[in-house]
Design brief:
Helices cover 8% and strands 44% of the residues. The chain is mainly beta and 179 residues long. The strands form three sheets. A six-stranded antiparallel β-barrel has the order 2-3-6-5-4-7. A six-stranded mixed β-sheet has the order 12-11-10-9-14-13. The radius of gyration is 18 Å and the shape is elongated.
């Protein structure tokens, strides 16, 4: 399992969300959450870095949930027009500000990106380029022979993550590598 997404963020930061469409006329914005702890990460008073950098940093003034969607108030964003101006802004935090992970089977996305991927017999497959957080977590592996492979990030298929060694071991079910 991983926590937090990777994106186009600078290497010393991680993406924790992306501002979506405005909500209402008073400057609230929807947020595509990309962190396991949105209540902590988006608490009022939190200061978030941004990509593009000229849009931030942004200070959270209000946080509420509406029908399963996170809504944020942001300092200086008081109407629909200014909310639209920050749409599609990536919200970032510095890696140094992330709490240490206590579970050895949980990883931050930035720890996984760049690891080489190999089969259980040592055959190289490619390099992890991203972690997708769809219905399930998927490792995006750039294959050595070209193209991408989406690998479900579950212990049955990815039995080993060796951060110190710089690799993950894949034990894919029959047919996964042909997809």
């Amino acid at each position: 399992m991983s926590t937090g997404p990777s994106g186009t963020a600078p290497p010393d930061t991680v993406v924790v969300g992306r501002i979506g469409r405005p909500h209402g006329v008073r400057g609230l914005v929807t947020v595509d959450v990309r962190t396991d702890d949105p209540d902590l990460r988006f608490a009022p008073g939190s200061v978030l870095l941004t990509d593009p950098p000229q849009r931030g940093p942004l200070t959270v003034t209000d946080k509420r949930w509406h029908s399963g969607t996170l809504l944020l108030g942001i300092e200086g964003v008081h109407d629909r027009e200014t909310a639209e101006a920050v749409r599609n802004t990536q919200l970032l935090v510095e890696v140094a500000d992330l709490p240490p992970l206590e579970d050895p089977d949980v990883f931050y996305d930035h720890q996984l990106v760049g690891l080489s991927a190999r089969l259980t017999d040592g055959t190289p497959v490619g390099v992890v380029t991203a972690v997708r957080h769809d219905a399930n977590e998927l490792l995006v592996v750039a294959r050595e022979e070209g193209g991408e492979l989406l690998v479900p990030f579950v212990s049955a298929i990815v039995p080993t993550v060796d951060l110190a060694g710089g690799f993950v071991v894949l034990d894919p079910p029959e047919g996964l590598l042909e997809l």
